[in-house]
Structure formats: structure tokens, C-alpha cells
Write a structure and sequence with these properties.
The chain is an alpha/beta fold. It contains 3 helices and 6 strands; from the N terminus they run ββαβαβαββ. The protein is elongated, with a radius of gyration of 18 Å.
Length: 150
């Protein structure tokens, strides 16, 4: 069977701040993120099976991404753990949806973070091929499995 790639798009709103950045993005600001998740695999070849002909049911992919990415990230504030604790405590007074991460929350790093989460959730026989994360309509970062093989 040929390998096929399938892609599903998702959307979430999230704010972030870039710690010690030398421009406006050091301030808390938000984006309307669009996420494309591309999987690769062989379509199931089991006539009569409800998933026959599918690499992965789009509904199953939607459930995984909604549970592990969208529901966690949507309307959250992503902050680098290097931000002083007192500042994070002040932020907690205005929101309870703060995601502390061990990296600078750039679109590039968020795309890699999402890839790491999703790789742990996919069923056998299905590979995460790529992630494309749009920060704006004209700016995106991409993660490819082939670039990250060890």
C-alpha cells in the first residue's frame, strides 16, 4: 500500500510574552493561531471494517488534538519559566489559564512543543509527519519529523 499524508486544521486563541525580547513582543499579546497537523501512514486495507481506507479517522485525530492541545492552549497565557515568580504570581491574579514552559514561547518553539505532545498520543501505524503553526495570516513555523530524526 502507498503511504498517504492526511492533514487536519485547528484553531485556538492564545497569548504569550517573550521574556527579555528586545521588541514589542516582550509585552503580553495574543494571536489567533491556526494549526495544521499532518499524519502519514498506509490506509487500512480491511474491506468491511468501519475504518477501511483511512490512515486515521479525522474524528479520532480531532479528539486527540482538541484534548491535548486546543483545550489546554485556547484562551491561555504561555509564559517562560524564567519570568520572575513574583510576576507570574501577579498574572495569576488576573487569569487561571497560565501555561509555564521551559522555553521561549515563540511560534517555532510552540510548534516543536505541540509535535512532542502529539507524538505521544498517536496510535501505532500512524506517524506525525509535520506541524504547521500560523501565528498570523502571513507568518508560520513548521516542524517536520524528517528534520528531527535522531
Amino acid at each position: 500500500m502507498p503511504k498517504i499524508r492526511v492533514t487536519k486544521r485547528f484553531h485556538f486563541e492564545m497569548a504569550h510574552t517573550l521574556y527579555e525580547y528586545d521588541g514589542l513582543c516582550r509585552n503580553i499579546h495574543g494571536h489567533s493561531y491556526n494549526l495544521e497537523v499532518t499524519l502519514a501512514g498506509e490506509p487500512r486495507n480491511e474491506p468491511g471494517h468501519p475504518k477501511d481506507g483511512m490512515v486515521m479517522d479525522f474524528g479520532d485525530l480531532k479528539k486527540i488534538v482538541k484534548e491535548h492541545i486546543v483545550s489546554r492552549f485556547d484562551h491561555s497565557l504561555m509564559v517562560n519559566r524564567l519570568v520572575p515568580r513574583e510576576q507570574v504570581e501577579l498574572l495569576h491574579k488576573t487569569t487561571d489559564r497560565i501555561i509555564l514552559v521551559d522555553f521561549q514561547p515563540t511560534t517555532e518553539n510552540i510548534a516543536g512543543h505541540i509535535a512532542g505532545i502529539l507524538q505521544q498520543q498517536l496510535p501505532g501505524g500512524v506517524e506525525l509527519f509535520s506541524i504547521r503553526l500560523y501565528e498570523t495570516v502571513t507568518s508560520f513555523a513548521e516542524w517536520f519529523a524528517s528534520d528531527n530524526e535522531y
